Amino acid sequence: MEELQNNLQAQIANNGGFLHFTGHSGKLHSEIVEFDLNGFEHHEQVELNALLIDAINCQSEILKQNSLFITDLSVVEDPARTYNVVTGTGNHTGVWTFGNLIKNMANQTATGVSARTLLKEWIRGWTNGRTINGQTVPLRIAVYNYLIIPWLVKANNWQGNHYQNLNIVTQWETDWDNTSEANLLKYAPFKLMAIVNRLDLKGNTGYSSSITNAGETRFIYTLIAPHTNTR
Fold first, then answer.
1. pTM (two decimals)
2. Which of 27, 58, 99, 142 is deepest in the core (most CB within 10 A)?
3. Cα separation of 91 and 175, whole Å?
4. Burial (0-12, 13-18, 19+ Cβ within 10 Å), 209
5. Alpha-carbon gap, residue 65 to 69, rounded angstroms
6. Rg, Å, the chain Cα set
7. Who contacts 54 (Cβ-Cβ below 8 Å, separation ≥6)?
């Protein structure tokens, strides 16, 4: 135990410290939290600080090939299940496309909420500052030029600068409501990057009151810039 602690302290010193996260905020700790080794060896009750666990975990190298992220291009660019907005290849309505998953999430038959409405409410959140998990997220001005305008232009096959003489801030929601839902889903400017198996969420009561649920599968997308076709 003593040798393990000494080795750990030496590694922390060589690395210049370790990061501990509270929510999304990380703080660098340059010294390891001391563990009462003497008391432990004399069978006394000792406290194990959570920061010590972080210090130990930070020494473990993440091996991509052993992780639960699926990033193989033969999967995330499967032409039958996905659509690649960069190359213009694949299936616009494939089961793993952003549009199809949004449609499934909306589940209009059960909720009465259309995919078009769900998307609009989601996008509106980017146009206003808000507080998420106790942190202030400012409004995203670029959302108009990099998401809303190119998405509507593509979905409506507009030519030229449709918003040249219009106020996009007040006009886009009306245009959104008048745009074909099928086209909004078809031309969503998001590319599938990874599929993640969240086995760690097994038993989460948000999904079931039973611990028999197997967790969650997450699809990770990136927004493709309309002018450069880059993330």
1. 0.66
2. 99
3. 26
4. exposed
5. 9
6. 24
7. 18, 19, 20
- DSSP per-residue codes, 66-125: GSSEE--HHHHT-TTT-EETTTTEE-TT-TTSHHHHHHHHH-HHHHS--HHHHHHHHHHG
Q: Chain-centre distance of CA 11, in angstroms?
A: 31
Which of 222, 158, 117 lies closest to 168, judged by CA?
158
Q: Which residue has the tokens 């039973």?
A: 210
* Nearest-angstrom CA–CA distance, 231 and 221: 10
**Contacts of the segment 217-223: beta carbons below 8 A, 24+ positions apart:** 219/96, 219/101, 219/192, 219/194, 219/195, 220/192, 220/193, 220/194, 220/195, 220/196, 221/98, 221/190, 221/191, 221/192, 221/193, 222/190, 222/191, 222/193, 223/146, 223/147, 223/189, 223/190
The Cα–Cα gap between 35 and 48 comes to 7
Token pair, residue 164, equals 């040249």
Q: Dihedral, CA atoms, 114, 117, 122, 125, nearest 10 degrees? A: -160
**Token pair 């997220």: residue:** 137
**Residue-level pLDDT at 52:** 63
pLDDT of 148 reads 92
**Below-70 pLDDT ranges, the chain:** 1-6, 8, 21-25, 31-33, 48-67, 165, 200-214, 227-231
pLDDT tens by residue, 130-148:
887 788 888 778 888 889 9
What number of other Cβ atoms are within 10 A of residue 20's Cβ? 17
